[in-house]
Amino acid sequence: MAQMSLDDYHRAEQHFTQELTAYTQKQFFEGMARMAGEGDSTCEILEISDPQSLLVKGESKDVSDKDCQEMSRLQSIYPMSEIQRINALVDQQQLVSACQYAERKIGTLQRERPPTDIEALSDQLENVQSDVSKIKREMARLTENEIPSAIEESSVLQKTYVLKGDYDLKLARQDYFTSNQDQIINQLVQQRSRNEFLAMAYEVEARNHRDTHKLLVAVAMDLQRNSKELKDRMQMMSDPSITAARHQRGTISDRDTFMTRLHNIVEETDATTDRHHLFLTYSGLVEGVEKLKDHLESLHTSHASTSCSQDNRLALLEKNVKSFEAMVYTGSVRGGQPVLSPQALIDHQGQLENELQKLEQTILEIVTDLSRKEKILKTDSLQATERELFLYFFNDPERLDQVLQDLNTRLQAQLVS
Question: Which of 33, 178, 291, 411 has a 20 to 30 A CA-CA distance from 309?
Answer without folding.
Answer: 291
